[in-house]
Amino acid sequence: MLLSLHISNYALIDQLDLTLEQGMCVITGETGAGKSIILGALGLLQGNRADAKAIKSGAKKCVVEGTFDITGLAVEELLQTADIDLEDSTIIVRREVTAAGKSRTFINDTPTTLGVLREVSSKLIDIHSQHQNLLLSNEDFLLDTLDSVAGNQALIGEYHAAFQAWHQAEHTLRQLQQTAHQQESDREFWEFQLAQIDEAQLQEEEQAQLEEESKTLEHAEDIKSACYQAVGFLRNDEHDVVQLLRSAKSALEGAARYMGGLDELTERLSSARIELDDVLSEIETKAEEVDFDPERLLWVNDRLSTIYSLEKKHQVSEISELLAIAEDLRQRLSAIDNADARIAAAEAEVKRTFAAVTALGAQLTATRQQAATEMVDNLTQGLQELGMPSVQILFDFTTRPRPDRMGCDAVRFLFTANKQMPLQDVAQTASGGEIARVMLTLKALIAQKRNLPTIIFDEIDTGVSGTMAERMGRVMQRMGKTAQVICITHLPQIAALGQVHFWVHKQESDTGTTSNILPLALAFLPTLSQAQKPNDAQQAVVRVVTFNEKGDTLHTTYGYFASPTAEVVAPYVAFRGATRAVVTDTKGRQADVLRIVAASDNYDMVRVTTAMPTKKLPFLTRSTAVGAAGTAWQQTFFSTERLPLLYLECAQRGTICGLSHRGQRTSGGDCATQSFGQSARHLCHQRSRGRFVSSERSCCPQ
């Protein structure tokens, strides 16, 4: 249930704070006053697309915040999954939109995604806007409604899982078939590529070795000449370096007998000679190994050319990469050979999952058809109460050629409101007013089957008027006993049935135009004398709550202090069947209603005494005092039982005159019990044995 709504800097709204309760709440106002703006703000809490154009001109961001009571709703698991803390049975949903078009979403001050917001809000608010009357022609809406009535939530979950498995199996099969077809066309090319690589008989370290050998063979003569030249430098007839090192060593050995430290030098010369002798030996060996072989060089270069060509073709730089490509080609070719087996297995999986889908789909069909029978009976009865005595309804089921996410059924809503007229699609045969009544009856039925905490109707009464409008209001009033119903309407017949009534209006100022919403009692205060300030008048308004003998709330409405002794004037209907009533003033002080001193069932007004402290009590003086002749004031209330009545207080000959919505004037003298003037009888009530009781008597002179 929506407990409160805060809106700031949205469209024409500077700031709006609205407190709501369970029951039927009515929102009225002139066309263009801003009722749709409030719905747009609520749409943001549902996860609708945020538009920077909705931000009030000059503001940096707009904020829409709703506080919800989630008692009994399946929301806790969703919040836990999204890592959102839940301290009690209330959550705060906030949406912020910046002038740059960026949107941020919070639940209990925890940032979250639009997906989570949409999933959570779907369990909190159901908004029926004007265009949704077209949903009767929408197959998905009809199936979802049938599932709601049938209680198919668990079965739908099973079906969706099976449908997803079947969908995935079909996707896998299509991929395998496409891959097999493509691979078959590539088979020859892959076989050719693999044959080229295999024919080359590549070795992983071969390339480096061949490149080294190629360089050696190409420069064999230069290498051999350099080796021989090096040997000549170290060993020849004129100066043999090795022999000279031997001689130097012998000379030092003789001197070492006479001088210390020469032994070490002798050893170093010996080591140098040995190392040099070894180097000469290896140089000679290398020179002998190097032999210019033109045929070998040609073979090596041809081999390298083959390797380079394969690497260039496959865009790699090493033989190891070519070998990896060859292995991949072998696997692809092997997969082609095994494709038939894998396709056959995928086809079997498709058949298995399809069988599961069709079996669950058949269960859905059976439950939906049973629910359709129940819905036809309930809808027929409800629509007959709404002025369609000859209505006929049929849910026309057909089987889909192929199951989809909603099941195996295709369904149409066939309708006729007249005898001897064939059933047709509702969009082709029903008027706007008939569709509105069908949708309301359908929503009422859904509300009985599902836990819809808050249902918002946006001018569902379009195309309806008179008695039928009142009957539609009665339906919403009954829905308000188990859910919070917020109704936006222009019709007084519906507005009159609301437990709480808000008025949306525009205000013009030097800074621009703003929209505001007020409780009706605050919006339509009586015209005051010049001595009474408007703020004082607003402080005289009280909230009235009545209860039955079980302590359950019957009505929530508004009234005002009508005297300095804490007497309150309020709508009479709120006290029907009540055993207790409480008033709350603008400061939050509460007091019990002690006694009903006067009541008018005809005018739906009651005057009661309360236990509210009377010191400095604000009250509306014009509500009890008779002014100069010809003065008049407009009464505060919409009747909750009848059409709104316009009351005129006339100070002529000391009488109080009333003017009904039909323009009929009535008059009578003041009663001793301070009741309102009326032409017929009125009800004088008193509290007896814990209950407000009445005795009808005439106390006004005729």
Kindly summarize this structure in a few lines.
With 702 residues, this protein is an alpha+beta fold. A hairpin with a 2-residue loop joins strand 14 (500-509) and strand 15.
Note poorly predicted spans.
Answer: 526-532, 622-702
Physical arrangement of strands within the biggest beta sheet:
2-1-4-5-6-7
Total number of helical segments? Answer: 17
Which structural class should the secondary elements be placed in? alpha+beta
Q: How is the secondary structure organized here?
A:
Elements: E1 2-10, E2 13-19, E3 23-29, H1 35-45, E4 61-69, H2 76-81, E5 90-98, E6 103-107, E7 110-112, H3 114-121, E8 125-128, H4 139-150, H5 153-200, H6 206-218, H7 220-234, H8 241-255, H9 262-289, H10 294-314, H11 319-385, E9 392-404, E10 407-416, E11 424-425, H12 426-429, H13 432-449, E12 454-458, H14 466-479, E13 484-488, H15 492-495, E14 500-509, E15 512-519, H16 520-523, H17 534-539, E16 541-547, E17 553-561, E18 567-571, E19 580-584, E20 590-600, E21 605-610, E22 656-659, E23 665-668, E24 682-688, E25 691-697
Helix pairs in contact: 4-11, 4-13, 5-11, 6-10, 7-9, 8-9, 10-11, 11-13, 13-14
Describe the structure.
This protein is of the alpha+beta class. Among the domains are: 195 residues, P-loop containing nucleotide triphosphate hydrolases (Rossmann fold, 3-Layer(aba) Sandwich), CATH 3.40.50; 172 residues, Trypsin-like serine proteases (Thrombin, subunit H, Beta Barrel). A hairpin with a 4-residue loop joins strand 20 and strand 21. Helix 11 crosses helix 13. It starts with a strand and ends in a 5-residue tail after the last strand.
